[in-house]
Amino acid sequence: MTGIYFDNNATTRVDPAVVEAMLPYFTEQFGNPSSMHSFGNKVGLAIKKARMQVQELLGAEHDSEIIFTSCGTESDSTALISALKAQPERKEIITTTVEHPAILTLCTWLEKDGYKVHLLKVDGKGRLDLDEYKKLLSDQVAVVSVMWANNETGTFFPVVEMAELANAAGAMFHTDAVQAVGKVPLNLKDTKIDMLSVSGHKLHAPKGIGVLYLKRGTRFRPLLRGGHQERGRRAGTENTTSIVGLGKAAEMALEAMQYENTEVARLRDKLEAGILAKVPRAFVTGDPSNRLPNTCNIAFEFIEGEAILLLLNKFGIAASSGSACTSGSLEPSHVMRAMGIPYTAAHGTVRFSLSRYSTEAEVDRVIAVVPEIIAQLRKLSPYWEGDGPKAEPEKAFAPTYA
Amino acid sequence: MWDYSDKVKEHFFQPRNAGVLEGANGVGDVGSISCGDALRLMLKVEPETDIILDAHFQTFGCGSAIASSSALTEMIKGKTLDEALKVSNQDIADYLDGLPPEKMHCSVMGREALQAAVANYRGEVWSDDHEEGALVCKCFAIDAVLIEDTIRANELCSVQDVTNYTKAGGGCSSCHEGIEEILAKVMAERGESFKPGAQPKEEAAPAGMTNLQRIRKIEAVLESVRPQLKRDGGDIELVDVDGKTIYVNMTGACAGCQMEALTLQGIQQKLMEELKEFIKIVPTKVSSLTRAMKG
User: Fold this and answer.
1) In a domain, B205, yes or no
2) Which stretches in chain A have pLDDT values below 50?
3) Helix, strand, coil proportions of chain A in percent (round to 5)?
4) Closest-CA residue to B275 (of B234, B222, B235, B239)
5) Which residues on chain B are in Cβ contact (under 8 Å) with A399?
6) With a cut of 0.90, is the ipTM above it?
C-alpha cells in the first residue's frame, strides 16, 4: 500500500527487521517457554533477550522490572487496580483531564466503587498547574497517573518532577508513556516513577504486545492470576513472537533516538510552518515548545475534521482528527475542550504524526495539498465568505441548536 | 473509517447545490455546534405555486453531513412545499443508500433544516422539539435522550421494557450496560432502584396503541410492500399477531424464494419503524384460515 502515512501516533508500521526477527518463533521455535524440553528452552532465552532490550530502552535498573502484557490499556488497568488493591486504606486517585480513555474510562468506572478521582486541569496550551497538584497530594492518594506525552498534541507533562512529589507524599506514581517510549530518551532508574505503560505498536513492533514497567519494591497485586508466567505477575502463556518483536523494536528505537529528535523533528517543523504559511485562520494546539518530536496538531477554523480527513485520504494522505464525527461521539476531543479550544476550531483539528520513515518529499506533498483542501471545505462553510470568515462568524450564522 | 456508501462519497466529493443562493426567500439554519454539524438551507420558492424552484446549502460538518445536505437539495427541488415536507430523514438516508447508525443524525439535521426553511418562508417560527443525546444502541441508532424520556414517560424498569418501547438493545445487546445505567439514573429520580431481574411491564400496546390500531398499522405496512412483491410474482399475507411476534405467509413466487429471508428482514425493519417497538417477523407455511381452525 502506497500513500503518505502521517498517523504514527495511532499506530506504526512493523519494521521489516522486526518481522524477520519474529518469523522463526511462529514455526521452528514454537515451543512454550515454560516447557522443560529444548523446544521451550530456546524460546525462554529469546524472551530473556527481549526483556533486556526493553530494559535498556527504558533505562530500567533490573530486567525483572519489565512485565510483558497484551497492550498499553492492560498495563494501565493493571497498574491502577494494583495500586488500589495494595493500599486499601487509600481511596483517592489523581490524574489529568487529558489522559487517554484507557485511564479516564477506567477512573470513571472506579468512581462507582467509591474511589475519589481528582482530575488536574490544563491551560490553553495543555499545561498542568503543579500548585493544584501539590494541594491534592495527601495520605489518601493511592496512585497518581499522568501521561508522559499527550497523544493528540504531543505535549509533555513534567512526570519526573511529579513522581518525586508523589513519592514524598507516599503515593505511587504511574505514567502512561505509550507515546513517549521510543521517541524520548528514558532513564527510569534515576526517577521515582513506580509504574510505566508501553505499547509495542507505537514503536514499530506489532499490535497486541505491551509492557508494564514495575520498579523493584513497588507493592503489586496482579490483575491476571493463574500460571507463574512473568514471575506470577501476569499469568497467561507468553505472546512469544510479539515479545521477540518488541525486543527488536526497542533495540532499533534506541539506535534511532537521535534521528527522531533531530531529523524527524525538523521534518515536522517544516510541515507545520509550511501549512501555517499558506492557510489562514489555522493554529497549532498544545505547547509547541515542549512536545514530542514527531507530532503536530493544527486546528483549522470553521470546518470539520472528518471532512478534511476524507479529502486528505483521497490524496493518499493519512492523518487523524479530534472532531466528534471521527469517533462517533457527539463531542469533539476532550483534550481540545480541556484546553478551551472553541468548538468552531476543535472540530477542525488535524493531527499529523510522523515517524523515522517519513520523507522530505512526503512533507512537501502534504504542504502542497492541504491548503486546497481547506479552501474547498471553507467554500461550503456557512461561517466563511470569500477569503475569510464572515464578520463575527458566530453571529452571522447562529443555527437553532438541536 | 466509516463504511460510507458510494452514493455518500459521491455527494461528499461532488456536492450538488453548494453555496449561497441569491434571492432565497426561505432560509433554515439548524445544527449543533458541539457535535460538529450545522447547516443552512436556502430555498427559492415560487409564491403562486409553492414550488421549490431552487435549493442550496452551506454546511459545517462531516462527510455524511455534507452528503445529506447535498442529497436533500436534490430531493426537494421541483416539489411543492407540502410535498417537500413529506421527505423524512429516512428518505434522505435511503437516497444515499444508507448511513452508518452513528451518522443518522446528519439526515435528521437535513430534515430539520427543511422544516426551519419552510417555516421561515411562511413567516412562522419553527421550534425544535428534538433533543439529541449520545448514541447508545448502535444496531437501531437510538440515543440516550430518547431512552431517558421513554423510561420516564412510561415508568419503565427493565432493559426488556426499554427494548420493547424503543428497540434499543434489541440487536447485539452490547449496549445493555449503558441502558442499565440510564435505568438506574431515571429510576432513582422516582425513588426506585434498578433491579436486574425485574419483570418487564405488560407487553400490550406500547406507544399507546390498541391491538386493533396495531394490527391495522401492520396491515398498512404489508399493503405498502405488496406492489413490489406482486411485481416479482409473489404476495404476503398476515396470519397472526402474538405479542411481539408477527406471523406471515409468503405466497406465490415469494414462497421458498432465496431472497425470502432478505425480504422479510426489510419488512421487519419497516414494521419496527412504524410500530416503534421491537418485533419479530416469522414466516409460516399455513394460511390464516388453517391457523384459526387449529385454534
Assistant:
1) no
2) 402
3) 45, 15, 40
4) B222
5) 29-33, 38-40
6) no
The pLDDT value given to residue A101:
95
Average pLDDT, chain B: 86
Domain closes at, from B189, B220, B235 = B189
- Could you give the CA distance from residue B80 to residue A168 in angstroms, rounded to a whole number? 74
For residue A311, which residues of chain B lie inside 8 Å, CB to CB?
A: 13
Q: Output phi, psi for B276, to 5 deg.
A: 55, 40
d(CA A242, CA B65): 41
Q: Provide the angle, in degrees to the nearest 10, between the axes of the packed helices A305-314 and B6-13.
A: 100
What are the phi and psi torsion angles at B57 (to 5°)? Answer: -140, 155
Domain A257-396 has CATH 3.30.565.10: no
In angstroms, the CA A16 to CA A271 distance is 27
For residue B228, what are the domain limits?
211-294
CB contact under 8 A, B13 and A347: no
- Say if the Cβ atoms of A399 and B126 lie within 8 Å: no
Q: Give how many domains chain B has, as a whole number.
A: 3
pLDDT > 90: percent of chain B: 42
pLDDT value at residue B205:
47
Last residue of a domain, one of B94, B121, B148: B121
The CA dihedral of B205, B210, B215, B219, to the nearest 10 degrees, is: -110
Whether the per-residue pLDDT at B295 is higher than 50: the answer is: no
Is residue B112 domain-shared with residue B142, that is, in the same domain? Answer: no
Whether chain A has a CB inside 8 Å of the CB on B24: the answer is no
* φ, ψ of residue B219 in degrees (nearest 5): -60, -40
Asked whether the beta carbons of B116 and B31 are under 8 A apart, the reply is: no
Residue B40 has pLDDT above 60, yes or no: yes
pLDDT in tens, A155-187: 999 999 999 999 999 999 999 999 999 999 999
A16 to chain B, any CB pair closer than 8 A? The answer is no
Residue type, B128: D
The answer, for A372 touching chain B at a CB cutoff of 8 Å, is no
At B234 the pLDDT is 84
- Distance between CA atoms of residues A76 and A65, nearest Å: 15
Task: Give yes or no: residues B18 and B62 share one domain.
Answer: yes
